[in-house]
Task: structure prediction
Amino acid sequence: MAVATAAVASLVVATIIGELLSDPRPSSTLLGLDIAVGVLGCAVLPLLFLRPPPTAVGLAALAALSPAATPLSTVGTLHVARVRRFPVAVAVAGAGIVGLAIQGAWRPHPGLSYGWWLVLDVAVHAALVGWGTLAQARAALIMSLRERARRVEAEQAYRVAEARLLERTRIAREMHDVLAHRLSLLATYAGALEFRPDAPPEQISRAASVVRAGAHQALEELREVIGVLREDDLADNEAAEERGNGAASDARPTTRLNGSTERPQPTLADLSRLVDESREAGVRIDLDNRVPDASALPAGTGRTAYRIVQEGLTNARKHAQGQPVRVAVAGSAGSRLVIDIRNPLAGGQVVDTPVPGSGTGLIGLSERVHLAGGEVDHGLTATGEFRLYASLPWPP
Result:
């Protein structure tokens, strides 16, 4: 504002000097009037940024008294056109036209008729209004584009954060399934060692080896997921630092959705290996696999089917120790993949075991199946068995 005031003041001084040069013998009264109007106009000019329309009208009134106020009135009209609505700008421009028309009437300019003076007066003020309106529209457009860019950036950040949250949920669900299965196997082997101390040494050694290997695998899997979550936290911190350094417009938070270091996820083609692990732990399993080619299943469907069987075997080991489990899998391309897992309850009721559980395994499994477009049901049957039933789509 100070720079603008100084620039306009210099124009006022130049106007007064021009009046002196055009009239070698100026009237002392007119000269004093020009100087007084110039000083008063420069003193009032800062109010233009606080109350534009009234100040611009006042500057137009000063322009009617002296040419020294002409630059001030011109700046007032332009500023009002830039910051106020078009009708207000037109009204202020009309005041400026009237002020300069009065000035031209009682202080005519040599070599310029009054008619041409009025034409120039109207043309200049029309140009000022057009210029200011165009500048106002351009500023509004730039502000709108900046707001849109900020909104798009915020939406992008929200989408990335949501994707990271979904990925962490997926990792947590996978780790629940894997660790619950692994730890239930370890509990079964450890229970066998505890209740069969008279077992042959080679059998005890083999069971201890399985416990050691299973614990090692569980630790490796837990270390893997912790590493992935820490990498995501590091990415969040780096993105926050970049935004703090003013690089938010170019920085985009990144997330590791399917990192190349993650081990391949099991599918229904690995069902035999899953069943063998449980059989080695002493679980009696009757497997009826009527899927002709499990590798033809879509990867997502095959992974969901594997987790269903894994959850069913885990629950059977935790709540129905020593009871046989029947696993039936059937389906073909173009129809549906059906999984039916049944086991009698220990003593006719669900029993607690030393293996702790979160109680959310079946809830998470239901969510997984529904996301895959399937259906799932579980509960006690009329024959006293616990049944886990799931049906998944198998596109042709």
